[in-house]
Design a protein that fits this description.
The structure is a single chain. With 173 residues, the chain is an all-alpha fold. It has one domain. It is built from five helices and no strands. This is DUF2165 domain-containing protein. It comes from Streptomyces acidicola. Keywords: Membrane, Transmembrane, Transmembrane helix. InterPro entries: DUF2165_transmembrane.
Length: 173
């Protein structure tokens, strides 16, 4: 095999495997966030308590310089939780659509749609849970209601998948 043939073989393999990787990784994140949204809808109370405690800041160190940030209104807490569920549901639908487009080999559209869904998750878990929940509502201070590790896992997974779908050769063909 000549050097040119070897390079062509490697490019052919990469152009087949990268879209497959993008498909499977997008499908994995789509499945995950679909299950999260489904669980939040069908078992509303479990994570409702989480959101309420984080926003109320009732398990933090209760520093008087920070407690003015607490949201104690149940209506506002529940509105925030419903907004989270809606955002998760829309992200799940977008990622399911992205997965469908990867399977259909419409790679350019799949990349755009998947990027949108992954960015939605990175905003929710990065800006929402890590930034706002973790720092503004000092969730890191709570021994019982600290979701930073879980948020970081989703943020990292979404970021890795985003990088994979943007590798050169992923959306070729």
């Amino acid at each position: 095999m000549t050097i040119d043939q070897n390079q062509q073989s490697q490019q052919s393999s990469r152009s087949t495997l990268l879209p497959l990787a993008a498909t499977l990784l997008t499908a994995t994140v789509a499945l995950y966030i679909t299950l999260v949204a489904f669980s939040n809808i069908t078992d509303f109370g479990t994570n409702q308590a989480f959101v309420r405690h984080v926003l109320a800041m009732d398990t933090t160190f209760k520093d008087e310089n920070l407690m003015w940030r607490a949201i104690e209104s149940r209506a506002l807490q529940d509105a925030a939780y419903v907004a989270i569920i809606v955002w998760e549901t829309v992200a799940a639908l977008v990622l399911i659509g992205g997965t469908y487009l990867w399977v259909r080999r419409d790679h350019h559209r799949a990349r755009r749609v998947s990027t949108l869904g992954l960015l939605m998750l990175m905003l929710l878990f990065g800006a929402g849970f890590i930034g706002i929940g973790g720092e503004w509502f000092v969730m890191w201070q709570s021994g019982d209601w600290n979701g930073l590790d879980a948020a970081m896992r989703v943020f990292t997974l979404s970021g890795v998948v985003l990088l994979v779908i943007h590798l050169p050769g992923t959306a070729e063909r």
